Every structure is written in structure tokens, then in C-alpha cells.
Amino acid sequence: MNKHHKIHLLHASIFEPFILATKQIGTPVEKILNKVNLPLQLLETQDILIPERPCWEFIREVSRHEGIQDFGMLATQAIHHDEMEALAPLLTGCENLFDLLKRFCLVGPTICDTADYTIEIDQDRVTLKQRGDRLLDDDIQVQLFEIAGMIQLINLATNYQWHPPEIHLTFKHHRDIENSELLGFSQILFNQSYPAITFPRAMLSLPLLLKHSHHSSPTTIPKEFISKVQHIVTPYFSYNLDIHMAAELIGTSVRTLQRRLEEQNSSFSNVVAKAKMLEGSSLLLNNELNLLDISLSLGYTDASSFSRAFRRWSGISPREYRAAHNDNEFLL
């Protein structure tokens, strides 16, 4: 399937380092989030799935705005890969570097749709590469982020600041990148097939210096098309998201999105309605949230509108639903 007809999602905690790094350098975060159509909800929560392409557009925009040629690598210093809410719990329990890298290759696609990491062993050399879809024609910062993340994973088995013998990048020669201090003394090879790093095979048996994670298991990316669309629209309820903006976020045309939904006997309005009910059901389990706040967060103008929609969908009122799922009824 054409990559532009796919829905690519990303767990928001993978994007969190860029939010923090952008704040640290004084760039107006909200302004750029709005420019690339990312929800401001990202400033408050990380356990949500968001459209992936606008995230990489955000990184590119900050790099251009501030003139920081290696911003993709700089951001990984704000939060290391093993500290990310989505990745940390998935990497615990590994005994050595080889176990860690195999686990990373396995779980990567569950939190980032374009993640397709592979380990290639050739005699005494190992190549760790990222073969996933490239969503932007100019994705220098994305590749630098991927490379920095791979290096950080290797460093979990070393007690020093290790740098790979070789770094592979797909774009043409870039002097500022070649001279970046963040890349150490690695040999940089441009115009390669995939972003990748190399390291000695002997390092695979190194024990890990990884601390036990106390993070809870993250929300993972579903495989079903309709479920992905539901995750796309959920952070945008208060924006009154329409099908035109949804198609833009996905990176496809309105007609293609309509056709793919019709193939599954659904429509955009049905997907949005179900997504609102699923999110509303989840929010109702939090007794600290009142009905009006829940209604507004879902894009309804008042509590009555949400209550009518919820009853049509579930057959009971929000009050009855909350009472049935709590030991003590909470007065809305």
C-alpha cells in the first residue's frame, strides 16, 4: 500500500522530548503546534496516540525557526529513550544488549507506525537500521532523532559515552551535520539506503545498566484502519475536526479517506461519534470530572447534548453509566 494511503500514528511520549527541548531553547511551542495542526493536549498528557506526520513537521519547523541543524539529536538529551513513558516499560527484563535491541525492534512498531528497526549481523560487525517509511521529503531531523535514539540504547550497555564507528544517513552530504559535536568522532556516510549505525558484534553480549522501570504499560497502536482513525480524531474533539482536516493529518485525500471508510461500512461521522462515546465512557470513570467538563472536552456545547448522544449510543444516561461502574454513585 502506498505510504500516503496509510494512517501513521505515534505515541505522544515519543514526541515529548521535542516539546521539552523546544521550551528549553525558548521557541513558542503553542504557536508551532498550531501551525502543524497538533493538539495542545500534548502539553498536558503523553498517553495518547497522535498523527505522526505533523510531529515530524513540528521538528523540521523548530529546526528552521531556530537555525539548529542538529535539533533532532539535541532533543534526545531532554528525555532519553529508556526514560520515555511508552518505551521504558517495554525494555525492562532484558539481560544483555542483544536482548534489548531485539525487544526494541519488536516493540517499536507498537508505539510508532514508521518504526521498522532491524539487526543485521555480518561477521564481526552489527548494523542497526531503521527501514520504516519516510513521511517527509526533508526529514533530516527525524533521521538524527532515530540515530541518537539508537546510540542511546547502545549506551545502556556501556559505562562511557559511546559513539558508533559509522553512521548512515539517506540525505546528501551536509557539512553542519558532519561537523556536529553530538555525533562525536563517528564516520558519517551520506546517501545511504537507510538511517543506521554500526558497532562491533562483541558488544551484543554486554550486560545492561538499565534501571527497573516503574512506568505503566502504554497505549499501543492498533492495526485496524477504523481504530486508527478514531485515535486520530480523539485529541481534536474540542477543535471541531472535520474530514478535510482529518485527511490532511493522515496525509491523504478526502476522497481516499471516504472510500476506505465506506469499504468498511462506515463513515467519518460514525467514526467520530463512536470515538466520542469511547472517550466519554473512559472519562466518566473518573469521579473528579463533572459532566459539563467532560461534555466540553468532547466538543459538545453543553452537558445535555452529550447526555442525549450518550444515551442513544449506550442505552443509558452518563449518570447511570457512572453509577454502574463505581462502588458509590457520584453526583454529577
Percent of sequence in beta strands: 5-15%
The CATH architecture category of the largest domain equals: Alpha-Beta Complex
Name the helicity range. Answer: 40-55%
Q: Could you say what the CATH topology of the largest domain is called? A: H-NOX domain
Number-wise, the strands total 7
Report the total helices.
Answer: 14
- Counted up, domains total 2
**What is the distance, rounded to the nearest whole angstrom, between the alpha carbons of the first and last residues?**
47 Å
Explain what the structure shows.
It is a single chain. This protein is an alpha+beta fold and 332 residues long. It folds into two domains: 3-205, Alpha-Beta Complex (H-NOX domain); 225-324, Orthogonal Bundle (Arc Repressor Mutant, subunit A). The protein is built from 14 helices and seven strands. The strands form two sheets. The protein has a five-stranded mixed sheet, covered by helices on one side. The longest helix is centred in the last third of the chain and has 17 residues, at 268-284.
Give the topology, please:
Layout: E1 9-11, H1 12-24, H2 29-35, E2 49-51, H3 52-66, H4 71-74, H5 97-111, E3 117-122, E4 125-130, H6 140-155, E5 166-168, H7 175-178, E6 187-189, E7 196-200, H8 225-233, H9 243-250, H10 254-263, H11 268-284, H12 291-297, H13 303-314, H14 318-324
Helix pairs in contact: 8-11, 11-13, 12-13
